[in-house]
Amino acid sequence: MKEAFEKKFPGMTLNVTVKSSSYLGPELDRQLATESVQVDNMLQTAQDYPRWKNDGVLLHYKPLDFDKVYNAFKDMNGAWVSSAVNGWSILYDKSKLRGANPPETFQDFLKPEFKNKIVLTYPNEDDAILYTFDLIMEVHGGEFFNQLLEQNIRWVPGASIPPTLIAQPNNTFSVTFTTTIGLQSQDPFTFVYPSSGTPFTSWAQRSAILKDAPHPEGAKLLQNYVVSSE
Question: Record's Pfam families (predicted)?
Fold first, then answer.
């Protein structure tokens, strides 16, 4: 996004900070509480936006094409708007499965053939991943998690790390359900949504401008670009 934005608008510099919401959310709240806002725009955790709107810290701004965004994916007053829809999916590298049938449900991850092959993000690392585990255990109970632990899981601290490890040829990791690569498979990965048994987690990625943004006009430009078809 940084490269595309700066190419589209020569002379503009976009500084992007990428961390899990469990880090960025509290940091943003600290800046707001101390009246030391350093952030212009944020693409952050969905459930934070109603609270921030009620606190009066969001700029009400409707970018170009605001009317084309589904009503459920935006605040009608322009406090926030969604730029994409994400969802955690089952992801695997078929070339590393060595004859095993690919997983199609969360229950499949408990099969013996996937022992030592699963890489997952720590549940407490990300709210959407924690919610996924909650959905699974609502259907299959806490015993699902106990059985999952017996599979010798490789736990990692971020949702982007599982596909990175799976893509490496020098390990056994081949499957995960705590990441996303978009809405279609990309070599070497195949992705599927669970075929039965458990709902999966999806959400509209929201974007907003802080009312006290240090660069309000640049923030508006970025908000327009984020929502654009491009």
Answer: SBP_bac_6
